[in-house]
């Protein structure tokens, strides 16, 4: 849904004659800004895409403020630094989107809990949107308009839906953070314009062999309730015999250790960092219940986590993988190790990339990443 806090300025007219002069009528001052607030919400949470259109005065940096009338609580944001104090929310520009020309627009997003009424009291640099007082300060620039790419299709009501088409730098930014958790080596992460599943951009991860050569890019996710994820992945080297990871989720219910998806014995597997449990069990019969990850083509990887029930499901190319299921019913050679202790995950982030615990390297591309509370599909 949309909320717009202001309208455009009126028209200024003047007239003059040979025997009398009619005084010019002053034009109405342009409002400080207008704001579009598009929200997608579910029972316990919401995301909002916020577009700020500046008024007549160019800005070298911007701060947008508002108040929530309900119990909304911001948990993460992208393309802006967002802070909340009680009901008051402040969003500040980042270095790459700080300049906001007269009439220009900028978009950012946020995720939160406890959806409620849309805010209406937006203010830009201390001036209420709709107020005709010029916003504070500025550096004149040639007016241009910054537009955001429409959300990618095929994400249903996902809380996170990113096809990387809005990435303009050499490395993913905004909601995404690039890093190697434990030691920095040769692994790299970058935005690639030569290979993509949809559009013209993807994220390329060049992962080296050895533990220190891992590299990931990640974003925060909600750890409560049932969580579904979907992404497309393409890679160059078949899954090796050794243990590797291409996705990790930090599990606060497991001491902050990672829940990892990757491969071993040339087939897909899940791995629990805290006790090194694998799914399926790494026996010939267990591995036979999994599948390899094809090379040189895009594959759709989906997963479901149900923390309350302690359940996990996995699909590759929309087909369920029987060896990558935890449903509470013990299955020989699949989940006996996994069910050796109680497991109720509560994950707080999603990281995609490459981690090798031996000498195995790979180059991967990721695209069309989505996370939500219902299955998204391929």
Helical amount: under 10%
Shape: globular
Tally of contiguous helical segments: 1
Q: What's the mean pLDDT score? A: 84
Gyration radius, in Å: 25 Å
Provide the low-confidence segments as ranges.
Answer: 1-28, 132-151
β-sheet strand percentage: 35-45%
Largest sheet: 8 strands, antiparallel
Strand-pairing-aware structural class: mainly beta
Secondary-structure element string: EEEEEEEEEEEEEEEEEEEEEHEEEEE
Distance between the termini: 26 Å
Number of E-state strands: 26
Topology at a glance:
Layout (H helix, E strand, L loop, with lengths): L14 E2 L4 E2 L10 E9 L3 E10 L8 E5 L5 E6 L2 E5 L2 E5 L12 E9 L9 E2 L2 E2 L31 E3 L14 E3 L8 E5 L9 E6 L7 E6 L5 E10 L8 E8 L5 E8 L2 E6 L4 E3 L4 H4 L11 E8 L4 E6 L2 E2 L28 E8 L5 E11 L6
Antiparallel strand pairs: 1-2, 3-4, 4-9, 5-8, 5-10, 6-9, 7-8, 10-11, 12-26, 13-16, 14-15, 15-26, 16-25, 17-22, 17-26, 18-19, 18-25, 19-20, 20-21, 22-23, 23-24
Summed up:
With 378 residues, this protein is mainly beta. The protein has one helix and 26 strands.
Task: Outline the structure in words.
Helices cover 1% and strands 40% of the residues. The strands form five sheets. Strands 12, 14, 15, 17, 22, 23, 24 and 26 form an eight-stranded antiparallel beta sheet that branches. The protein has a seven-stranded antiparallel beta sheet with strand order 13-16-25-18-19-20-21, with no helix packed on it. The radius of gyration is 25 Å and the shape is globular. Residues 1-28 and 132-151 have low confidence and may be disordered. It is built from one helix and 26 strands. It is mostly beta strands. Strand 10 (123-124) and strand 11 (127-128) form a beta hairpin. It has one helix at 284-287, and strands at residues 15-16, 21-22, 33-41, 45-54, 63-67, 73-78, 81-85, 88-92, 105-113, 123-124, 127-128, 160-162, 177-179, 188-192, 202-207, 215-220, 226-235, 244-251, 257-264, 267-272, 277-279, 299-306, 311-316, 319-320, 349-356, 362-372.
